[in-house]
């Protein structure tokens, strides 16, 4: 399985997802500004992977910072990383976690070398825990998929979007590992093409059969009985179970309901934001017009075309069959189920 991100003595190393699938190159970020830039440019993307990058960004920032005015520098590092992308809550969760470690060590007067080492260790733990969570949620989710058939997914919620193994693709991987005979329909996911560039590449590496669709083909295939389940990831899940995910997810969920296809969301609890009552409060990132008017630098619309480019949409909880987390499977009513899961109680998996 691909190493999405790694802490090394040279710096934070990440596979450059803007170059996949044509080039497998790795970017070494030697300070926090480079990590922030990599998140913004989507060299690394996907909610849990962004969280891992932010944690390592904080660690490398403090490692390289001057001893003087470290508290001020620490807040600058956190603010810079927090300003990269607004939707995935894992980014803010990871920064808060790093801040907690920093503040508690400062409060007890730890020396700076101890603080620096503790932050590096914490960032590596964020990565390891994310991989463990994905394997756990994969096992819960595998039980929900058919023994054989076709599963549709959107965007890339795989190893590349996480510390490793993946959320939606983690569920598919776990089901295949358990012996299910599945093939995958991957939507290309305009405009950034995470489906065609990343999901197809990733599944091909694993030998899981995958067929690529353009986004506007999904409804037709559902109507013709070619889809037995849909599994997607999430960037932020509100307390009521509304799900922000890659643009186009909402349309799929509505089509799934129309065609009586189960629609599953797979995400670690680090993606659940209990502070927000509903999805209406989730900030939706608007990205640059070039992503829509160009493909890899090639202009495909008239110059100076006015563009709308929301990177995410919100699927209302009523379209979500279940939310699969590392602590169990939540079903409606989501307010109680998500609260119980996030507070650590396990919730039984129903068939
Ligand atoms: O803009 P991206 O590529 O960061 O968006 C990614 C998604 O929407 C994923 O589906 C989501 O982050 C879940 S990744 C496990």
Characterize this entry briefly.
The chain has 351 residues and is α/β, with parallel strands linked by helices. The protein has 11 helices and 16 strands. A 7-stranded mixed β-sheet has the order 6-5-4-7-10-15-16, with helices on both faces. Strands 11-8-9-14 form a 4-stranded mixed β-sheet, with helices on one face. It has a 3-stranded antiparallel β-sheet with strand order 1-2-3.
Description of the structure:
This protein is of the alpha/beta class and 351 residues long. The chain folds into two domains: 5-134, translation initiation factor eif-2b, domain 1 (Four Helix Bundle (Hemerythrin (Met), subunit A)); 138-342, Translation initiation factor eif-2b, domain 2 (Rossmann fold, 3-Layer(aba) Sandwich), CATH 3.40.50. Helices cover 40% and strands 18% of the residues. The chain contains eleven helices and 16 strands. It has helices spanning 32-40, 47-64, 70-82, 89-107, 112-142, 168-177, 194-206, 218-223, 249-258, 290-293, 334-342; strands at residues 5-8, 11-15, 26-29, 148-153, 181-187, 210-213, 229-232, 236-238, 243-246, 263-266, 272-273, 294-295, 298-299, 312-315, 322-325, 328-330. It has a seven-stranded mixed sheet with strand order 6-5-4-7-10-15-16, with helices on both faces. Strand 12 and strand 13 (298-299) form a beta hairpin. Helix 2 runs antiparallel to helix 3, helix 2 runs antiparallel to helix 5 (112-142) and helix 4 (89-107) packs antiparallel against helix 5. It is globular. The structure holds 5-S-methyl-1-O-phosphono-5-thio-D-ribulose. The site of 5-S-methyl-1-O-phosphono-5-thio-D-ribulose has 17 residues, from helix 2 and strand 9.
């Amino acid at each position: 399985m691909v190493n999405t991100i790694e802490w090394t003595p040279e710096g934070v190393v990440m596979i450059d997802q803007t170059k996949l699938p044509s080039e497998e190159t790795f970017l070494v970020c030697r300070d926090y500004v480079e990590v922030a830039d990599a998140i913004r440019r989507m060299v690394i993307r996907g909610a849990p992977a962004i969280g891992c990058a932010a944690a390592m960004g904080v660690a490398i920032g403090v490692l390289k910072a001057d001893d003087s005015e470290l508290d001020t520098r620490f807040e600058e590092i956190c603010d810079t990383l927090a300003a990269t992308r607004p939707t995935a809550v894992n980014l803010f969760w990871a920064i808060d976690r790093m801040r907690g470690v920093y503040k508690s060590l400062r409060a007890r007067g730890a020396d700076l070398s101890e603080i620096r080492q503790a932050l590096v260790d914490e960032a590596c733990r964020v990565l390891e825990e994310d991989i463990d969570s994905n394997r756990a949620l994969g096992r819960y989710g595998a039980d929900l998929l058919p023994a054989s058939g076709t599963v549709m997914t959107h965007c890339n919620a795989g190893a590349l979007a996480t510390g490793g193994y993946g959320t939606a693709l983690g569920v598919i991987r776990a089901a295949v590992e358990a012996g299910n005979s599945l093939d995958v329909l991957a939507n290309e996911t305009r405009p950034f093409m995470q489906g065609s560039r990343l999901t197809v590449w990733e599944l091909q590496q694993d030998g899981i059969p995958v067929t690529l669709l353009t986004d506007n083909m999904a409804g037709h295939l559902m109507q013709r009985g070619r889809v037995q389940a849909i599994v997607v990831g999430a960037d932020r899940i509100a307390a009521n179970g509304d799900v922000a995910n890659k643009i186009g997810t909402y349309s799929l969920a509505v089509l799934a309901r129309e065609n009586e296809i189960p629609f599953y969301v797979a995400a670690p609890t680090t993606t659940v934001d209990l502070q927000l009552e509903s999805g209406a409060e989730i900030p939706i990132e608007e990205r640059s017009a070039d992503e829509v008017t160009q493909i890899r630098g090639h202009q495909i619309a008239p110059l100076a075309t006015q563009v709308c480019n929301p990177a995410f949409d919100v699927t209302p909880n009523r379209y979500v069959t279940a939310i699969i987390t590392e602590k169990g499977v939540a079903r409606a009513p989501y307010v109680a189920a998500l609260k119980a899961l996030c507070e650590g109680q396990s919730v039984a998996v129903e068939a």
